[in-house]
Specification:
By secondary structure, the chain is α/β, with parallel strands linked by helices. It has eleven helices and ten strands. The protein has an eight-stranded parallel β-barrel with strand order 1-4-5-6-7-8-9-10, surrounded by eight helices. Strands 2-3 form a two-stranded antiparallel sheet. Helix 9 runs parallel beside helix 10. It is globular, with a radius of gyration of 17 Å.
Length: 253
């Protein structure tokens, strides 16, 4: 149980509490921001649609960052849209951008175009934290997941992220292995990993924490190098930290 408690503490400190539903409104974002300030401590960030950034920033203490999505969720090769989203986020006081890599374009072999897209996004988003969503469950092939990771890291991404959470396959241990290995190989000691989509229990999060520890070292188990994108994970974290049983005692694998 002590190990599970420690994993729960890491997961809480690294959690991007997320609401990206079609029906989100001011009331739901208000509830999200209240939930982010837990009795066990704050989450790392909240992640919302660009139009809710100003509301979230006003509602949260400085310790909790505000992230929002760009080119989301479809990840088309649409630079105009991505830059418009980024400008909205920055102007509203957001601190982090989660942008979807144009994964279909990468599948079609448009590597140069994807690289140019990412370079423009990185330029436009500075000095905000940039997380690039690879949509690994749609890329499927390890070689494409690795190529997407390389392109994002080379462009200056602060994090590479598995998924939007809007596709049938989201975060997987296999994708995490490839992505973490590319971070390690890159030599970029600031770059981090974000597991997102389908992570609902501390037991599941613990698998990705251990993978990160193995690939990047124990020093990477913080919000500067590791994030979880989830809407339901917080409930299980608080259950564990409050002395209750986790929703899932088994492995995520």
């Amino acid at each position: 149980m002590n190990a599970l408690l420690e994993e729960a503490r890491v997961a809480l400190a690294c959690l991007d509490l997320t609401s990206l539903n079609d029906g989100d409104d001011e009331a739901s974002i208000e509830r999200l921001c209240v939930k982010a300030q837990t009795p066990q401590g704050p989450v790392a960030a909240v992640c919302v649609w660009p139009r809710f950034v100003a509301q979230a920033r006003a509602a949260l203490p400085a310790a909790i960052r505000v992230a929002a999505v760009a080119d989301f969720p479809d990840g088309e090769l649409n630079l105009v849209r991505a830059l418009r989203d980024i400008d909205t986020i920055a102007q509203a006081g957001g601190q982090e951008v989660d942008v979807v890599l144009p994964w279909r374009a990468l599948q079609q072999g448009l590597v140069l175009e994807v690289a140019e897209f990412l370079a423009e996004v990185r330029h436009a988003s500075r000095p905000l934290t940039l997380k690039v969503i690879l949509e690994s469950g749609e890329l499927k092939e390890e070689s494409l997941i690795r190529r997407a990771s390389q392109l994002a890291l080379s462009a200056g991404a602060d994090f590479i992220k598995t998924s939007t959470g809007k596709t049938p396959v989201s975060a997987t241990p296999e994708a995490a292995t490839a992505m973490l290995d590319e971070i390690r190989r890159s030599g970029f000691t600031h770059a981090g990993f974000k597991a997102s989509g389908g992570i609902r229990s501390v037991a599941q999060a613990a698998g990705y924490i251990e993978q990160t520890r193995q690939a990047l070292g124990a020093g990477a188990l913080n919000a500067q190098r590791l994030r979880f994108g989830a809407s339901g994970l917080l409930d299980d974290i608080l259950q564990v930290l409050g002395g209750g049983a986790s929703q899932s005692q088994g492995s995520a694998y």
